[in-house]
Amino acid sequence: MLDTLTISIQPTTASRLGELDPANIEFGKIFADHMFAVDYADGEWQAAQIVPYGDMAVSPANSALHYGQAIFEGMKAYKAPNGEIALFRPLDNWRRLNESAARMCMPEIPEELFMQGLSQLIRLDAGWVPSTAGSSLYIRPFMFATDGFIGVRPSDAYRFMIFTCPVGKYYNKPLRVRFENKYVRSAEGGAGYAKNAGNYGAAMYPTKLAQQQGYNQLIWTDASEHRYVEESGTMNAIFVIDGRVVTPALSSSILDGITRRSVLQLARDWGLTVEERKVSVLEIIEALKQGKLNEAFGVGTAATIAPIATIGYEGTDYELPQTTANAFSLRVGEALDAIRSGEAPDPHGWMVRV
Ligand SMILES: *Cc1c(COP(=O)(O)O)cnc(C)c1O
């Protein structure tokens, strides 16, 4: 990778790496030593810097806090057995961040700024990328408004930042989910396809209600009729019905997940039938009743594959068959793990070394 962009680096004088216990990592609470930050002002991105991870000062009047001008990405870096560190499909995250930015009237980030910030930060914190099986470095790029102005209009100033946290092997306990038929995560024409902060804040209350009823997550349905499947929690939903891989087609209300895209690609590589189309709740319930719903799972960067064991609908809980050793969800999860850890060939060129 080219090193043309100059990023000033202020290394930490008090590394916390010694305190990290790779066998005992609590997700999202431990942050690597450094963070990347660059401000946008006067119509352009200013000098970029890498500084020790820590608190920062912002105007209490910024439009991220009041009106939700805040977007983020989630991605991971993996360490290969030979110690090399690679990112999984980082340009896909960069493109999606800019799509989210456009939707929220925020400035786009040049590819070089994103990729250089990312790779220089990860090279500096290379020691924080865990190497045990199934572990990785979770990366959180994000951008928010920084104007000290309380009027409702797009901010003129923004900050783009990246911090990282080591994550251990994710334990995929099969989930209990239920179809949501009152609340909505997003509507056609809304901002559901963007990773903007407000989508997540508004999903917490309906999710909490489902959790109080003993479910782990919701399966969101369409905003106008609650007839069609949208997503599973903050993951895309994939079903295996009678041997076919079926998933809701993308729309403005569904987030275009990079894991979803990768899982569907592998399914096609393996010669499976893949259907991206409207998937009705009744179709899933019928398939459950007839024993034709082979598998259901969520897909996303954090968990990769989150198998679903139980689906609730109108007060009845339907059990899925136990996941077998040759289940598609298991095989595709293992195939992705093998590509990411460098143990398997990468025919689609998904891995980018830092
Ligand atoms: C991030 C996210 C996903 C998964 O996207 P990946 O790129 O696979 O991590 C799915 N749905 C929602 C709502 C998301 O925010």
Q: Could you characterize what this model shows?
A:
There is one protein chain. The chain has two domains: 2-167, D-amino Acid Aminotransferase, Chain A, domain 1, CATH 3.30.470.10; 175-341, Alpha-Beta Barrel (D-amino Acid Aminotransferase, Chain A, domain 2), CATH 3.20.10.10. The protein is 23% helix and 30% strand. It has helices at residues 63-67, 90-103, 111-124, 197-212, 258-269, 281-289, 328-340, and strands spanning 7-9, 34-41, 44-45, 48-52, 70-72, 75-79, 85-88, 136-145, 158-167, 175-179, 217-221, 229-232, 235-241, 244-248, 274-277, 293-300, 304-313, 316-319, 351-353. Helix 5 (258-269) packs across helix 7 (328-340). It is globular. The structure holds pyridoxal-5'-phosphate. Pyridoxal-5'-phosphate binds next to strand 13 and helix 5. The site of pyridoxal-5'-phosphate has 13 residues, from strand 13 and helix 5. Keywords: Amino-acid biosynthesis, Aminotransferase, Branched-chain amino acid biosynthesis, Pyridoxal phosphate, Transferase.
